Amino acid sequence: MTAVLPTRALGSTGMEITQVGFGAWAAGGGGWSFGWGPQDDAASIAAIRHAVELGVNWIDTAAAYGLGHSEEIVAAALGGFAPADRPFVFTKCGTVSDPRDPMARPRHIGDPASVRREVEASLRRLRVECIDLYQMHWPAEDGTPLEEYWEVFSELRDRGLIAAAGLSNHPVALLEQAEVLGHVDSVQPPYSLIKRRAGADVIPWCAAHGTGVIVYSPMQSGLLSGAFSAARAAALAPDDWRRSSPDFSGAELERNLALAEALQPIAARHRTSVGAVAVAWTLATPGVSGAIVGARSPSQVDGWFAAANLILDEGDLAEIISALERTGAGEGPTRP
Could you tell me which residue, 7 or 4, shows the higher pLDDT? Predict the structure, then answer.
């Protein structure tokens, strides 16, 4: 039975979203440049359905994840739900891979014609007539000015193809430019106990402008799940993007795992998981609407689901600050 979970307003969109949402990045599978290695589609579908049945009311995906495969998995998972029980679906455009060489780094494309092609393709794959939140994945690197692609987002919103328009991974300077042209409904920055910089600029800007914030990688791609280890890092699949990330090797990995270990006593006091504590820390930041949390199986959903209701007290936050200072993990403000 679907539970009733606490919700927060997603800016001024009118959408009330649960504090945690399901992230479908890994559901894109392997065989592309930022994949997580081979995935079991049936397990991905089961994980999504399990999250929705627990009460999670939004799914985050992107056309880039598995070159559209993640969107297809999301559609398959949601196909059996009645309209009243379907969660919001958020997706992104602008990160375009070469299908002839999917392991090559994708390009960030803002060309208006490309954005229009992408939204039509996402609508087909997701089997919907309107996307609840459509976001530009990264600032364009093809020479297209922000003004040109943001104008297309406003057009798509006016046409009813998308309900809300957002920007992902965009710095404050670009958010300012976009806001002059049309309201930025939502922003999606990376934010975790390890990557904390958005807490100093992007998130306060959003709070001041009535813009929703959905943060991604609050468990830093598994590092703060409480289940990661140096042995797991060494055993990552050859096509798992984390193999090339500094966070997953050497001294940085040691600091990050030491931080995760330091969260264990807090998790024990709350009778929850380390991952739930890490997610709850991001949700304690004023201005954050929700956190995207990934899973590749129903059991992984169970590992972080408690964050939907977990509130950290002042003692917890002080202990986390001490752990950050002691381990030297990450960068950015130490208090949410």
Answer: 7
Residue pair 6/286 in contact (Cβ under 8 Å)? The answer is no
CATH no. for 15-327: 3.20.20.100
C-alpha count within 13 angstroms, C-beta hemisphere, residue 325: 8
The answer to whether the CB of 37 falls within 8 A of the CB of 30 is yes
Q: Where are the domains of the chain?
A: 15-327
Residue 160's nearest CA partner among 136, 189, 129 is: 129
Report whether pLDDT(23) > 50: yes
- Degrees, nearest 5: CA angle 113-117-120: 140
SS3 of residue 129 by DSSP = coil
Task: Measure the CA–CA gap between 92 and 292, rounded to whole angstroms.
Answer: 14
CA dihedral (283, 289, 290, 291) positive or negative: negative
Q: What is the pLDDT of residue 3?
A: 61
**pLDDT tens digits for 72-118?**
999 999 998 998 899 999 999 999 988 889 888 899 999 999 999 99
